């Protein structure tokens, strides 16, 4: 049986090879904080979208936390129906252009593409997703947020990161009066202050936030729960609360000298850099504390935050940048794409190495480390690093950045609410059927529940918690009517 014309437009993965948008030369892109890749030309985006096999069981969608309708909007893109492709993409995600930029597609959709399994290279899903929504913004297809019919109820959301912003949008569309409280002076959480511009330019986030503000969502910035109001005071003010603070407490490393000047936390370093990108006054950057210019930088860690730190250091003009990681390349948690980008830009990776001590009293001068080897698998399935005997070595360092991940802050004390229940990891304990904490009407979503995770999972949690909060608020309103 002959294939239909529509099918002939697809299934081009044999004749057309995988092609991502062209990256700028490493030497040029290391001079600024702009995104490193150019955009697809329209014909190239259509060509790559046409490589989709339109398989019966789309593993790309299955392995996307949002279960985006990926084959559908790839087909629409291939057919030149770009506005419909955007509308399809927008059905399941509040931030498709952000996910297209920062999701680890190599571990999610693209890593599970059937074309990848066949040896032809995955469809470039993330780059097409970014292209579709960037075009939608330029063409005016991104419609203003339209609030639903007022319900007469209000919701307070603590945290303006991916989970909080997603829930805020959906709840506003449902007709609630939505107030977002955040400790920073700009919304966006780690999207704004944790992720560098070379991965996610700040205007991309700010236009999303502005759309929410224009839709009537009230943002209370520079607002700290526990300082400006307790959790109980916010509960009295709103009909329901969502805690979506993320996890911000840096994991520490125990070794001699770790408190020496010049040993810094990754997030403090990244926030200072991002604030400079906004044009803010940052005294601790200007005095050199969070500025890598002319310094020998050693970053400890192997996740995406470590990659952000090494690549930021390059752009700040570091003399040398080394990443110290205790496992090998195959067992690191960060994106392999980010490792390649970092290597291209001049970062040196010191694999199978772990810090032993910091040298220097008035200021750090070096990191003393051990060579490591991989032993038996641990509980996570990864092989455990073990110290190689008599393997000490030293790395010269003027700035050491600890990028070992994040844990939850002590929210019960921070919020002035000792009754708020937490797990042994410090994350909020919730009923996973309702996403509600042990406190009536107080819900939680995102990293503060699941631990440090991906932006896309924050968006998914924000979407899911909206349904539970909506159900709770309807039942509360009905109960109040009956009582009256």
From TrEMBL:
<keyword id="KW-0411">Iron-sulfur</keyword>
<dbReference type="InterPro" id="IPR036188">
    <property type="entry name" value="FAD/NAD-bd_sf"/>
</dbReference>
<dbReference type="InterPro" id="IPR023753">
    <property type="entry name" value="FAD/NAD-binding_dom"/>
</dbReference>
<keyword id="KW-0004">4Fe-4S</keyword>
<keyword id="KW-0479">Metal-binding</keyword>
<protein>
    <submittedName>
        <fullName>NAD(P)-dependent oxidoreductase</fullName>
    </submittedName>
</protein>
<feature type="domain" description="FAD/NAD(P)-binding">
    <location>
        <begin position="155"/>
        <end position="457"/>
    </location>
</feature>
<dbReference type="InterPro" id="IPR028261">
    <property type="entry name" value="DPD_II"/>
</dbReference>
<keyword id="KW-0408">Iron</keyword>
<keyword id="KW-0560">Oxidoreductase</keyword>
<dbReference type="InterPro" id="IPR009051">
    <property type="entry name" value="Helical_ferredxn"/>
</dbReference>
<feature type="domain" description="Dihydroprymidine dehydrogenase">
    <location>
        <begin position="29"/>
        <end position="140"/>
    </location>
</feature>
<dbReference type="Pfam" id="PF14691">
    <property type="entry name" value="Fer4_20"/>
</dbReference>
<dbReference type="InterPro" id="IPR006006">
    <property type="entry name" value="GltD-like"/>
</dbReference>
<dbReference type="Pfam" id="PF07992">
    <property type="entry name" value="Pyr_redox_2"/>
</dbReference>
